[in-house]
Amino acid sequence: MLERLQKIIARAGIASRRHAEEFITSGLVTVNGQTVTELGSKADASRDHIKVSGKLLRPASASNLVYLILNKPPEVVSTMSDPEGRPSLRDLLHGVSERVFPVGRLEYHSTGLVLLTNDGDLANRILQSNDLRQTYQLKLKTLLTFAEIESLSRATGAHITRLRGKEMPWYEVTLSEARRDALRNKLFQTGHPVDKMRRVGMGNLKLEGLESGRHREVSAAEVATLIRLLDGKETVAADRPPKRPAKPPKFAKFSKFAKSTKFTRPTRSAKSAKSARSGQLPKHKQRGAAKKFRPHSSPRR
């Protein structure tokens, strides 16, 4: 079946679809011995002889797909090699024999989570997704006011919270990857340039407990959850709306007060209470009162 070359190369696990397009336009891809430089070119992976940088393309099977999380240290380029000779991600992948590539990039001075894989289809879905939330920790030069946080949230759709226990102004920001640069520009324009940036989460993938410069394998369960997130069949806990506290039952305060208070039984009868409310006295008290307050008779003459 004929497919676009960049899709075939990405599925083979050599590079993401975006990087595969760069290989094609650079003249590094050949089909049946002929160099192909047009992005719309198609080929049949089952019949055609496809080479990338002189190496024969072999489709990646599900058994040899690799998924890694790396905690990138500062001053390392987010590529597998660098023409300027700077440290790259390949220098940190000790013991990894499979060929992998990073999904997305972090700036040279930024640190944190980088996903590496040879699954071209998954990498392309992540790069094209506008809903996959990523979490960053930002160190700013100055503190943000509540009004500025609200304004930035409305402009970029980011969820911004201040990290407690930090002497300098550190903030945790959750937003889509497409909005990251917009947030940095807004912060710079409002006089709060970003001093440091650390990515600590990508969807359900977390950096917790992973030392700088180290990597770990992503479990099959984590990959399955990530795919469900991309399919829109699941949401990350941070994206779910907080549950509203249950309303207290009606007369809860009175019930609590009633349990803690001992009421004494009224001594008056219901009839006496009714008479007292009406301003009348019971008959037996009326007779007593009549005798007590009987007017004195006039003295006899």
Key traits:
Alpha-Beta Plaits, four-stranded antiparallel beta sheet, 301 residues, Structural Genomics Hypothetical 15.5 Kd Protein In mrcA-pckA Intergenic Region, Chain A, elongated, alpha+beta, 9 helices, 3 domains, 28% helix
Describe this structure in words.
With about 300 residues, the protein is an alpha+beta fold. The protein has 3 domains: about 1-60, RNA-binding S4 domain (Structural Genomics Hypothetical 15.5 Kd Protein In mrcA-pckA Intergenic Region, Chain A), CATH 3.10.290; about 60-130 and about 210-235, Pseudouridine synthase I, catalytic domain, N-terminal subdomain (Alpha-Beta Plaits), CATH 3.30.70; about 135-200, Alpha-Beta Plaits, CATH 3.30.70. Helix content is about 30%, strand content about 20%. The protein has 9 helices and 15 strands. The chain has helices at about 5-10, 15-25, 120-130, 145-155, 180-190, 220-230, 250-260, 270-275, 285-290, and strands at about 1-5, 30, 35, 40-45, 50, 55, 65-70, 100-105, 110-115, 135-140, 160, 170-175, 195-200, 205, 215. The strands form 3 sheets. Strands 7, 8, 9, 10, 11, 12, 13, 14 and 15 form a 9-stranded mixed beta sheet that branches. A 4-stranded antiparallel beta sheet has the order 3-2-5-6. Strands 1-4 form a two-stranded antiparallel ribbon. Strand 2 and strand 3 (about 35) form a beta hairpin. Helix 1 (about 5-10) packs across helix 2. The relative contact order is 0.11.
